[in-house]
Design brief:
- The protein has 116 residues and is mainly alpha-helical.
- The protein has one domain.
- It contains three helices and no strands.
- α1 runs antiparallel to α2 and α1 packs parallel to α3.
- The radius of gyration is 18 Å and the shape is elongated.
- The mean pLDDT is 87.
- Keywords: Membrane, Transmembrane, Transmembrane helix.
- This is DUF3784 domain-containing protein.
């Protein structure tokens, strides 16, 4: 029996949920960093943050969907669980790395602005 379709659906539900929750948290808490970059212009801050959130959703959900192309055939329930766990862990790790990279870059940029 081929469990690929079921695996795809479960994987996408889990990953899209994680991406949306993380995106909302980053959007809510990221206003402080963006506000610092635009020197207190709250309207511009909100617009930039919304564009960042949209880009975040498009890149991450698009990447998650693209990973479906390279999956092997899932023929057992055990393999279904393993596949979902491994593929989810990879995407969650990528999200984590990108998040910390963004914080590092923004922090360095803000420090550069303050020191100049």
């Amino acid at each position: 029996m081929n469990f690929n379709i079921l695996t795809y659906v479960i994987f996408l539900l889990i990953i899209v949920y994680i991406i949306v929750v993380v995106g909302k948290i980053c959007y809510k808490n990221g206003n402080i960093y963006v506000l610092e970059l635009v020197h207190g212009d709250k309207e511009l801050c909100l617009r930039i943050n919304k564009i960042l959130l949209l880009g975040y959703y498009l890149v991450n959900i698009g990447y998650a969907a693209m990973t479906l192309l390279n999956w092997e055939t899932v023929i057992t329930f055990k393999r279904l669980i393993e596949t979902i766990a491994v593929k989810s862990a990879i995407i969650i790790s990528i999200l984590c790395i990108l998040h910390y990279l963004n914080i590092f870059i923004l922090t360095k940029y803000i420090q550069k602005i303050i020191n100049d």
